[in-house]
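Form P-L/3: holo structure prediction, ligand thymidine-5'-phosphate.
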Amino acid sequence: MSRRRQVYEGKAKILFEGPEPGTLVQYFKDDATAFNAQKKGTIVGKGVINNRISEHIMTLLGDLGVPTHFIKRLNMREQLIKQVEIMPVEVIVRNIAAGSFSKRLGVEEGTRLPRTIVELCYKSDQLGDPLVGEDVVTAMGWMSPRDLDDVMALTLRINDIMTGLFAGIGVRLIDFKLEFGRFYPNEDEVQIILADEISPDNCRLWDAKTNEKLDKDRFRRDLGGVAEAYQEIARRLGIRIDPQQVEA
Ligand code: TMP
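OUTPUT (holo model):
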C-alpha cells in the first residue's frame, strides 16, 4: 500500500490514488473511534471484516440498481472505488429508536418508530456532526434540492433492501449511516452515488431473537466481544474469512 499516493486518511479508512484516473483504493484499518474520536481503540481484524461486509452489501445494492462507488475488492483490506466528491452530509436512517435519538428525545431504546426517520447531519468533526434540517443542507449548498430528492429516494430503497437482507439472517436493522457523493462519468454528467462503507461500524444490528448487539455499540459501550460480533455478522451473511487473514 505504501507504493501508492495517499489522498486522504479518515478514522477507519485510508484512500489512495487508484490505478486509473477517476478511481481510488479504499484501505480498511482496524482503528475504531467513538464519540467524535474521544474514544479510540483497535479492533483486531475489523478492517478485513468490514472490507468484506461492505463489498457484500454494496454488490447486492448494485445488483438491485442502486448506484454505488464500489468497483471490486482488491485484497483482504482494499477495494477499488469510483472517485467521488463527497457531500458533507451524513444521512442517518432510523427504524427503531436507539443511540443519540433515544437520548435526545427520551424515547426508550428498542422502540419501533411509527415510520422510518431520516436525519441529516453536517459532516464536521470539529463541530461534532450537528443535526441539520433539509433547509440548511440546501441553503448552504451542500446538496441541491434535486440532489436531496435523489439522496432521499436512494436512502429509502437502500433501507428496504438492507432491512430484508438482515431480516433473512436473523438480524434487526435498527439504524445506520450513509454517505453519498457526486460522480462525474464525463464532463457534462453528474450522478449521485452511494459512497463510504456499510458495515457494523455504521449500522446498529441486533440479533432478532435475543436483541444482542452485533455492531460498534459493543465498542462504544465497552460490552466486550467486539471482533466476535463483527465476525458473526460476516458469518451469517455467508462470508468466509480465513482466521489467519483477520490477524494479518
Ligand atoms: P447515533 O444514534 O449515535 O446518532 O448513530 C446513528 C447511527 O449512525 C448508528 O448506526 C451509528 C451511525 N453513526 C456513524 O456511522 N458515524 C457517526 O459518526 C455517528 C454519530 C453515527
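COMMENT: The domain at 6-83+226-247 is CATH 3.30.200.20 (Phosphorylase Kinase; domain 1).
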